[in-house]
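Hello support,

Our group uses your service weekly, and this is the first time we've seen a run hang past the timeout. The protein is G-protein coupled receptors family 1 profile domain-containing protein. I'm not sure whether the cause is the sequence or the server load. Input pasted verbatim:
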Amino acid sequence: MNYTDASSSVEVINEACAVESLDRRWYLVAVCGTSLSVLSIVSNMLISKVLLSSKHNHFYFLALLALSDCFLSLNYGPVIAMDIIKDRLKLRWLSNLYIQYVGPLLALSQTSMTFSCYLIILATIERYLITLRAKCLGTFRKCRGLAAFSMFLLSLMLRAPIIFEMQIEQNPDCIGEISEYYLNLSPIVNTFWYGTVYRFYIRNIMTVLVPFVLLAILNYKIVKILRMQQRSAQMFRFLSSDHKTKIRSATILMVCIVFSYLLANILNVGVTLWEYVAFQSTQTGDAYAFYETCTDVTSVLYILVCATRLFVYYLFNQEIREAIKPLVCHSASAPRKQDYVTVTRSFDSSRQIGTEIDAVAIAIARRLLSSELVFGGAGGTKDTNDSFVISNHHTGDDDDDDNDDTDDDDDEIPHMV
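Update from on-call engineer: The timeout came from a worker crash unrelated to the input. Re-ran successfully.
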């Protein structure tokens, strides 16, 4: 072996140990992604500060969602962006440090991501019960802490084992180089029960398919019920602007939740299927560049959803906007003056038959049968004591406090979107 062959073999080893830093990944993941993570941290801290206060406890799940998204955004830099930064700076100590801590932090980040998804489901279930005015709403709200804790434990069961799916290996050809140590999949991933049954089927079904189906069904039912309430209000000529606002808000919220969930997960599902069908093809040739780009875009999409959640809620949900506006503007806006409509009934106001709408229907029927209903003519008299006032701001959502003092949950009905 001559000096030329020796120098050639050294060059081959150096090329094999070289770490490539692409500008595309640097600007997409490190620059853009880190900027979005900072924005997400600030936004979700603002949301949590407002919604965790005692007078906004009806936003319980959204407050926890803000905390979960904040934790996920804090981990973006050390877990995702640092993978690009260490290759860009080419510091051996930084690369070795990253390999040591990335496993546990990645498992926590994935757990937080799944927990955020489950919190959205819980918030949507609560909204559905409010819209339905279900009797179990009070019981559900009393168990909100237990429900959130259960979802956190389920998220841990589904995502925390990621820490056992990676192992640190040494490349004997790159001793002393920045790429001397690297992460590889552990043998447990290749087993049938863990790798196929649990890791692919159970995890993907419970974290992707089930949440999407539940969100779509629950939000569809919410919109359907609100539209039925609007038609009932129009039959008795109640002002229904508040109903229209709630229908529009629920519809936009459904679109935002489903779209953001799809946006952050659909590409990840495609990559997961690709890995399951032909993992080796993702690591060779031009396919690897495409695979790498897909994983980078997925990580940025997740952080984008977290960063824009505040703006989505602020723009399309009046309740959250009114809760956050005083903190942003440093002054509470003047309370909105409620519009009232007076409806006359000809029976004793102390007697309540059914709901308010049923009472009005019975009053109209009684007047028609007794021929006492007169429109704008002489002789038509009204007993001022037989009138009652219905607030348009609460129509279809809150029971009249004078008639139903036992239902404390109805006072919070407009707050959950």
